[in-house]
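Notes continue from the previous slide.

Worked example: a multi-chain complex. Inputs as given:
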Amino acid sequence: MSRKTLTGAFAAILVAGTASAAIAADDIKIGNLVDYTGATSTVSKPFSEGKIDAFNWINAHGGINGKQINADTVDYSYQAPRAIAAYKRWVSEFGAVAIAGWGTADTEALVGFLAKDEMPYYSGSYSAHLTDPTGKSGVVKAPAPYNFFYNVSYSDALRGMLQWAAEDWKKQGKEGKPKYVHMGDNHPYPNAARKAGEEYAKELGFDVLPAIQYSLAPADFKAQCLTLKESGANYAYLGNTAGSNISLLKSCETVGVEAQFMANIWGFDESAAEAAGSAADGVVWVVGSATWQDDAPGMKLVHEIAGGDGYRPVHYVRGVCTAFYMKEAMEWADKNGGVTGPNIKQGMYQKTDWVPAGLEGVCFPSTWTPEDHRGTIDMYVYQGEVKDGKFAMNRLAETRIDRRPEWLGW
Amino acid sequence: MSSMSLRPCGDYRTSYAKDTTIFPTKWSRNFAILGLILAALFPLIASQYHMNLAITIAIYGIAALGLNILVGFTGQISLGHAAFFGFGAFSSAFLNNTYDVPVVLAIPLAGLMTTAVGLIVGIPAARIKGLYLAIATLASQFILQDFFSRADFFTGGSAGALAQSFSLFGWEAYGEHNFYYVALVFMVICFLLATNMLRSRDGRAFVAVRDHYLSAEVMGVNLTKYRLMSFGVSSFYAGIAGALYGHYLGFVSVESFTILLSIQFLGMIIIGGLGSVMGTLMGTAFMVLLPEVLEGVVSAMNGAGLIGASFMTNVAFLKEAAIGLVIVLFLIFEPDGLAHRWRQIKAYWKLYPFSY
């Protein structure tokens, strides 16, 4: 290839790169951050597909009071600097009024910018300290007035599972105090719920053992499993994401660990169960919405949104819920002074025990207030069952925890 | 020969001072000043997005320059540069949050603190080299990363630390258009300092250590001292850059300083040109802009309806693969880096219309 051709090709790429997509006149622009190619892609993919399918369905069915949603999707490979660059572009060039975001590091890094830019941000990070909009709780480092998410926070989800575990212990009629152990990498994401879980476990009468560390990157975790076995823990929380948890479950199966595993919301799903095989038997985890086969009235709409072609994982449904909360907040904003960041934020406060129209029985009723961004405190506790090589998900309980003021933000 | 010097015919250097001047010709100095003026005017026409990219280039450029002093000039290797970068970010936030040190002072102090850590990590460098040193620095990457997530008093543990915005005499550098000038000033100072150092006695000693350590030692260069010093200087730059990064984002989290970033820094200096100050900046700009340009191409294709939604989800990895491919092609066709290409372009115009 000659030098001229190379230069020409490079110039063409630059021109194409800077030319933005054609912009329709009367549309509502939102940024959509996804991870299709990075560390969290296995769970981001179904979640983001849920969001995108929902936006497309909304556009095909009248949009936001007749206005089309123009969602600009950026795959940032789970690299915070690229998420920040995308955010800056949405704010300055694209003119986004809200953002459907994703990961821990980037959401945390953006909290300050969001408040300053008055940009509502619906993250896939459910860290409890994003739930304190005023900073009055005193436990968060910075108030997060423009951060929202649909789901129980990581901390509340763990509290819910502990509640289930305490009842399970009673039901089994075992003697003495059950032993609880937190497991996960020493990283912001697995640690987000650690203290909350350990405190609540103590309150519920558990014996809390020292946390066990295993890396977010999948590896051989037999050493950790041996520690777990020797500790005699009855209930073990898995704070990492699915890939790492699959390796741990397999290692622990080899070692012969008896403990009851409880995985966080991104820590387990159908594909994880498939990969873990027989080790997935008995794992308990949190699900934040109805699932594909559930007989809920709103599931008909979810199936329609998905285009009806086959099974969708649990994260997909939560993506749809997230998009629909955004939709209704934007509709309110449109009728009350225009679709702007502050108006969308106000839109989030208009209803209590709010389920988006058409999704009854799918998303948990949620309430956001200017002082409390814990949308929902409900969750389903599921257990995996492997029979003859086939995996099944069984709902064990629908759990609701208290909305204690001192739990806000952690 | 053409790529070595672009001085006009008959312009002889008659003293050492003239030989080691920063700008070899009047024109190169004028162009540098013009470049600075243009850079200072850039915010007038640029959007927040472009400012964000420029700030990222400036900050990463400082860090990459530090690495280039270590790798390109002294011939050492480090796979732990991102950890020093992170240490600078946490140090500055710590000084500011705990002792109320003004940010403007916290940044250079963070640089000094990082230097101290770099010197400790650099101690093995006095004795080992090559792959062994690479592994030793890799270890420092993991040790520091683990330290960040455990040292609650210093970093806020795995929850991270808040960093206040940069302010000077009541002027607060919040937002891209303001912070750009802070980053620009720090970058210009850092690049000038490095250029100056490299033409000094110490700088020449670095190059001597790189080119042939045995000869250097025979000539009286203290290998241990200069290898350590190189680590110190490199960490100082990483510390300054990290501190700027922290105060720009307002939040420092352990997640941002992984081995991946260390490798990216290496990529920047290799693409830019090992042992070239200007090349460092070019390589940094290349590495920062490439994913953005490719993202732009993908979204433009998407906007124009060239690819469907399913393509977006299923073939998104093509973009990542393309980033890798471009870097590989670069290394094959331009192994000496962008700085070398730039020298050739200059030589081409200098000699135009005759190629020899």
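Summary box: Residues 314-335 of chain A form the longest helix (22 residues). Chain A touches chain B through 50 residues (CB under 8 Å).
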